[in-house]
Amino acid sequence: MHRYRSHTCGALRDSDIGQTVRLSGWCHRIRDHGGVLFIDLRDHYGLTQCVADPDSPAFSMAEKLRSEWVVRIDGKVRRRPEGTDNPELPTGSVELYVSEIEVLGPAGELPMPVFGDQEYPEDIRLKYRFLDLRRDKLHQNIMTRGAIVDSMRRRMKEQGFLEFQTPILTASSPEGARDFLVPSRIHPGKFYALPQAPQQYKQLLMMSGFDRYFQIAPCFRDEDPRADRLPGEFYQLDLEMSFVEQDDVFAAVEPVMTGVFEEFAKGKPVTKGWPRIPFAEALKKYGSDKPDLRNPIIMQSVSEHFRGSGFKVFARMLEDPKNQVWAIPGKGGGSRAFCDRMNSWAQGEGQPGLGYIMWREGGEGAGPLANNIGPERTAAIRAQLGLKEGDAAFFVAGDPDKFWKFSGLARTKLGEELNLIDKDRFELAWIVDFPMYEYNEDDKKVDFSHNPFSMPQGGLDALNNQDPLTIKAFQYDITCNGYEIASGGIRNHRPETMVKAFEIAGYGENEVVERFGGMYRAFQYGAPPHGGMAAGVDRIVMLLCGTNNLREISLFPMNQQAVDLLMGAPSEVSTRQLRELHIRLNLPDRT
To answer: What is the pLDDT of residues 114-128, one digit of tens each?
Structure first.
């Protein structure tokens, strides 16, 4: 017999009854039922109930066992007594009558429990992550993550993509976040950067004649913690294709992503035939460029109903042509208490309030706004929004460029408060036609809105002759349930167009050549039209595992302060190491 096991803890079945077997694992739970000890033995594969009574030669050893001790147990497989089967376990119809126990690894007093999935302070969970990962829910999440990545790889290869690995040590580049820098010992005073994404390398692969590339790529960004991204590093399904237009990328990616979601959705409906929503339309209808389409609320402009009305606050605003009034319908929200609660919520978000009209029995509009604009306008608003008695509408007004984010928050809040959101489904969509540029209020200049390497719609002609803030890019996102899960674009592969695009954002040709020399040179020697995207593996796994915390689907994450509590990183280094790197520290004053 093998030194440690003849079977795993998830393998025994009725067909094994009568056999003498050997198991090794962790003591998951130990129960004493009237002098008979029950040991639930756990390993990666499952759990087996082991029984030791006073007649067992191993009973005295069994009495010494404690939670999370690692043991080897020999014994005979037998059927569980009638009525004690556990149908939730694959091994639930059998048990192991113990004849011998060997302690392989005793455990000290546990800083946190492994049995059960009760909440526990995050700093303890991360410091003792090796214990946390033994817990069933987290263990299963990590296994699901591995299976999802396998599914992505398989589906990408079925679409004709080949997997390549791009460099980890590279040059610094402006991709929207701060680089992690790595000092060079061989080249004093110079630094490598960890890649924020394989963007330039994957485009260079297309220049090199490889037609369809992908990889599960590690990406590194030294940015402040965010709720929807792990600090430091994350993984993405990165891909690029040659000789394609936007529709070709969509046709290749959509079945991959739909298939992954369907495979791991546990029966929940998944969108087929994803809608394509222009960026500007997403803002107007949903107040978000990553809308949660499970929420049925669609906002509408109702400016005409307030123009010249008795509600002077809105009427005066509308004298400025850039201002609008948007309505957020709230079906079932037509009570004074609910409307006042939404108004208080808006004030808590830093707004002056949230105007509303509610429709009571008889169809009459009620509330201060209804009283000011009169019954005809109130009825017209109700008809436009398709509302009925017992419903309400909430209003935001001003410059949409400044209030659309708040309107999106209000839409989400209404959907949650009125229980309108069907949370048992996955709603996927393409967001298209992103603006190429935006105005940077801080620097008072035109800047790239998203990826600087995207092809502007209209090409060089648009860059030369159009107001930059009106130019759209061949850029697109995938959204799911209120999260952006992928982003990409058709690339700007012509050197003169690339130089002009960067010039508008304040970069001279010399700077473009200096910072993107490799790609700029490659464009001079026959560059194919190409495009691609990158999907966030962590966010996709998070959605499919039914959690809203990325730490629940990552093996060894940092905390929100970007500290690895398990390994003690970041850490100080020795003077000798600094000397080898020709680095002298200039630390901030701690006083």
So the answer is: 998 888 899 999 999
Q: How far is Cα 538 from Cα 552, in angstroms, rounded to an integer?
A: 10
DSSP 533: E
Token representation of residue 432: 């298209």
Long-range pairs, 32-38, Cβ under 8 A, ≥24: 37/62, 37/63
CA gyration radius for the chain? Answer: 30
Residue 42: in which H helix or E strand, if any? Answer: strand 36-43
Q: How far apart are CA 494 and CA 506, in angstroms?
A: 19
What is the rounded CA–CA span in Å between residue 352 and residue 442?
25
* CA 198/CA 188 separation, integer angstroms: 25
Any idea what DSSP says for residue 474?
S
CA atoms within 13 A on the CB side of 253: 31
The residue type of 378 is: T
Torsion (CA) 297, 300, 303, 304 in degrees, nearest 10: -120
If you write DSSP's letter for every residue of 72-86 in order, what string do you get? Answer: EEEEEEEEPPTT---
Per the structure block, which two tokens stand in for 53?
């009574």
Q: Among the residues of 364-458, which ranges form H helices?
A: 368-373, 375-385, 400-417
Strand, coil or helix: 240: strand
**Cut 0.90: pTM above it:** yes
Element (DSSP H or E) covering residue 539: helix 537-544
**Alpha-carbon distance 134 to 589, whole Å?**
42
Q: 6, 22 in Cβ contact below 8 A?
A: yes
Query: What six digits make up the tokens of 328?
Result: 């957020």
Gap between the Cα atoms of 466 and 574, Å rounded: 56
Enumerate residues 6+ apart whose C-beta is below 8 A from 90: 10, 13, 46
Please say if the pLDDT value at position 442 is more than 90.
Answer: no
Q: Render pLDDT for 534-561 as a digit per residue (tens, 0 to 9).
A: 999 999 999 999 999 999 999 999 998 8
Contact 260, 156 (CB under 8 A): no
Are the CB atoms for 178 and 196 separated by under 8 Å? no
Q: Specify the DSSP class assigned to residue 588.
A: P
Nearest C-alpha neighbor of 290 from the set 451, 414, 430, 470: 430
Written in H, E and C, the secondary structure of 423-450 is CCCECEEEEECCECEEEECCCCEEEECC
- 310: tokens are 């008795």
Neighbours of 44 (CB within 10 A): 12
pLDDT, position 174: 59
